[in-house]
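ok so heres the complex, two chains, lmk if somethin looks off
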Amino acid sequence: MASDPPRDPPVLSPGATPRSIPAAISAIPLGPKLPRRFWWGFGFFFALTLVFLFSVTWVLVEGIGTLGLDIPAAWAFPIINTVWWIGIGHAGTLISAVLLLLRQRWRNSINRFAEAMTLLAASLAAFHPILHLGRPQYFYWLLPLPVTHMPWPQWRSPLVWDFFAIGTYLIVSLLFWYMGLIPDLAVLRDRAKRRGAQVAYGLLALGWRGSAHHWHRFETAYFLIAALATPLVVSVHSVIALDFTSAIIPGYHSTIFPPYFVAGALYSGFAMVVTIAVPLRAFFGLEAFITLRHIDNAARVMLGAGGVVAFGYVSEAYFAWYSGDEYERYMIWNRAFGDYGWLFWTMLACNVGALQLLWFRSVRRSQWTMFALAMVINIGMWIERYVIVVTSLTRDFLPSAWNTLAPTWTDFGLLAGSLGLFFALMFLFVRLLPALSISEVEELQHELKEAG
Amino acid sequence: MSVTGSARGTLRGRLETAAPARFWQVLEEVSAEGGFSHRFSAEFPEIAERLSGAVDRRTTLKLMGAALLSAGLAGCKPSKGIAPYVDQPEFTVPGKPRFYATSLVLDGYAIGVLGETHEGRPTKLEGNPAHPGSLGGTDAIVQTAVYTLYSADRSRYVRRGGQPATWGAFQAEMAELRDTYVSRGGAGLGVLIGAETSPTLARQLDALQAEMPALAVYRHSATTPRNPAVVPVYRFDRADVIVSLDADFLAEGPGRLAHARQFSDSRRVRREAAKMSRLYALEGVPSLTGVAADVRRKIRPGALDEAVSEIAAALESGAPAGDKFIAWLVADLGAAASRAVFVPPLDASLYVEATALALNQRFGAVGDRVIYIASPEIAGAPLETLVTDAESGRLEQLVILGPDVLHTAPGDLDITGALQRLARVYHHGLHVDRTARLAHWHVPAAHDLESWSDGRAYEGSASILQPLIAPLYGGVTKHQVLAALAGDFTSSAQELVRGTWPSLNDEAWFEALKSGLIEGSAAAATAPPAATSVAPATAVDGATDAVDVVLRPDPYFSDGTHAANLFLAELPRPLTKIVWGNTAEMSPDTAARLGVAQDDVVELSANGRTVVLPVFIHPGMPEGVIAVALGFGREIEGSAPIGVNAFVLARRDGGGVLSEVTVQKLDAKEHVVTTQHHHSMEGRDIVRELPLAAFPPERNEPAQPTLYPEYENPEEAWGMSIDLNACIGCMACVAACQVENNSPVVGREEVARGHEMHWLRVDRYYAGDGDDQRTLFQPVPCMQCEDAPCEVVCPVNATVHTADGINAQVYNRCVGTRYCSQNCPYKVRRFNFFAYQDFAEDNPLSLLMNPDVSVRERGVMEKCTYCVQRTRAAQIEANITDSPITDGSVMTACQQACPSRAITFGNLKDRSSAVAREKGEPHAYALLEELNTKPRTTYLARIRNAPDSEEDDGE
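and the predicted structre for the whole thing:
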């Protein structure tokens, strides 16, 4: 992308200087007041967070039956949410780790909030399967703890692999995010005026003084964790996909899921990056740092990943036909024309139809069009998981067991509430921590200046 | 004391004038304020009576003493704390169940059962193989009878005018009644019974009538309104052509369990004996017998006479008419060796009954495939006579022994008005139903499992009912009520029954109790009823848009007798899979013509009486006919009525078919809850059906490669085979499974959400269409796959294989990921989405629990385990005695309950076991065997013996 024609928008506005960058970025967490609309936004999402808390409490008190689940479809919204959230997380890791290793300079101004997004999304993804247990209080039985009263985990079960995949992902994401934050926390400590902020940021900065030694070790560690995180971009969602692949149910039993889930993850993850980046740059005057170039690049990744997802749809249908298996063939027919057929077509319209707009440069460089498209794709990817998880289950092998599924208010409460929690925490993140990486943006500015 | 007028109006004034030295609680009481005493007497009338006078010192002391004494009475209650089992009753080993033979009386006839009791509480009933009415089989009603026994909505105390009274007071009342009427020869006194065969009851009624010749005995049974003097007894196992003239002999009538057994015995097609009987069925509305038929002809309900006369004429002339059904029948019966039997329905018209008798005589069935016996039932005047007697004043006081007549009386009979005219109505029953509430006196009845009584089976054999538990709720038997009326206040329930059987010495009596049958008491064959010549009724051909309504007793609730049994409420109806309610069942064509769809609410009106029901589309129904199940909507105190009472529509002339019924669509919806939502096999190889001519089929199942190691069987290798040709779809197995394995009732809303908890289900598919439409049943328990997909996906090892090849579920380990259910191709696992079990200690239903099976908590998965508690018990016993488990000695609950012996279970390692032989049959197959899960449960294909079965029209 370094060979982009010169008419491309710059990755960093030319006006940014070593003095203006930390000032502009740290102004958000250190500033005395944020615009009222920020708090309105936070208030809205905080209200949704309360819905989330209420729904979770209700499920824990009354039982898992308060969610729309039955036999045959014993998995529904929470598993869909898990797959969706973990997918969203992937873009952050890709941006921070993979693009760092690939020396993609443009990532520097969007990696921080993308990492925060990863962390929050992965936490929500980890939370849902636990809530979804019949007896969530015993979730730790999936751990190989040497306790005599507990069964040893069954290593053949993909759910055990899941548990470890998501756990690893959470730990690595947290380390990577915090690691990257340290120099910026030091900047905030130094720039903070109030004693409380100085102490808080100072403690979190772990004594960072910005010496050459520090920088040397920081860079080494940062790259090492990046290298550690990189395989996770592929492995976590592949492992989650194995929940489906290793099952016997038509619609689950397909080897295409791991690559297709990873592509879907990047697709929805970048859609979420755009969903966050556009309001962030528009409302906090960060146009200088998050430029249309970032939006454009995100759109290109979405185009690529979305193409793989579309290919996944085609090959899934093709192999269902080619297998000659009556159950597989019926599954595809049922997806398109069965009880949930309308969801299938909505999914195609969102994920394949809307995607085609990204071929146009004007669309890619119009931030609000991109925002709208990202929303459509976010919805489309959620529906995709619904189509996979629910339609396959409602019509499997024996027609006598077929049944439809009706979501309850608790399901929607969990979905909307988890979105609320996610965005409420994102708001707090923007308010309390540098949403953009100060040191890396400075580095970028320096490199650009050096490059001339 | 002078009181001014103004002061009298004030509280102070009244306080001044009030009598001194009274104990009081509120100021109004002292001042005799009108409002207080009014409210007080409304709330506590008995106390208010006694409160009139002032209480003096002596009375106060007396009351205090009484209060002190009654405090001690609390000690008379059963102890709530735990106590060691110090005085162990002889032969009782804690933890080991004991079995007692007794009988249940259903619709008047005895079904012999063996009751399993754990430390004195009956938990499960099995069929008594020695009893002719059971032959070891049971049905859903028998299986769930223990629920009724414990159910908290049973009547718990004697009531007089709705207020608690005592049995002694009732006996005193009976003595008074007796004094009044003995002198009058019983004129004005009546006894109303249901269908009854009890010899003790007959003896008591005879004795009463000897004393009071004018005593009226009325009989009301909504399921069998007719009570002919001579009844047929069939032997279907001797027949090779069975012609059902719209008779549902497999599901209705006192001989149904024996019929199912005989019928399926005549249809066990095996390698060495590839022959089976052929069943022709005329069928008005779909029935289990019609489903089992090889050749079926749909007729318009109410047009049976015509159809039968057509058949009779064709058989007479020997000329096959145009219809396939008749042509084949004529050809079959023309064969010299054919052993045919004709079966009229229980409520047959005189013509059909006479024709069936004539045909049976003509084809030599009488004396062989069918014999006639004197009806074992006690005769009585019908309900209409009761109403006219009440209206004319000939009847003054009535003792009702059982039937809820207010519920089951036809809508055009003003039974409420009739009973209200009577000076006194005494009611004896299990529940406080509408009749009990209207009656002046109500006495709680003892359940059959709490009773000493007796009864006769369909072929006349008598058996004694012995109590398995003392009456839980203070119930008394109907014999005790009649004894009180006869002036006998001291005989125990046992003595009353024992007195009926003086011919049995003590030894024979104990033998009868032990075996559950009185040897040699079967009725002797009598001459068939005299041939009558009756002309067939011609069905009224109403307007083409007329709709007929067929009222039929519900297969489980019957006429409402079992309507408080929630196990039955939640048991899917065999043909429709409907639970928790009745509906207007109609075919898709009829629905289209009426402009209604499933779940629409319609109002059916006939003769000015209406019922409002939701529509259920039932493809097997004939055009222009709506079927409605009776027995619903019974109003029992302590529980909400289930469904709608359709007796309102019934007419006193019976018949069950109403023509010219108006159907009006209402602007409402009511969801009909079913447990199966899709009815086509979608061309999949699920229920295999093959024509008899194609037997034996070629077995074509190449072993598929697998990555898993060969399964080893260090111990027994349990396996099951289900013969789809023997299964009649009656659902006894499902009910048995529920009772044996402590499966909860989850309620209507939960079933509607797909949360039902039956471990075993009987799938029902439709195949073919039009007249050729067939219904196929398939019981689906856990397949106990050797390579079970559920086992590999459980993250916590909660579902594992046992050494004997059972796919076990470890409830305590389960965290509830539900992945196992996801990965089960048969969807036989059930999940506790909520806390369905009531763990409250004072819940009487906790007594129903089988102590050998864990009660599952919220959030765990559960499933069929081949009744692992039974196989384990057998293995432990075998280990102790160091002897192998003999084939057939371990039965699963479903297998044991099955009246048609469709299920075989045993050790596959023993190559000579029955189950191994069944699995070696050419028509054995595994469900979804292409998935290579290697199921331990396999099926024997259903075989159709239609004359045209050479042309295979299977799916």
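quick notes: Chain A touches chain B through 53 residues (CB under 8 Å). thats all i got rn
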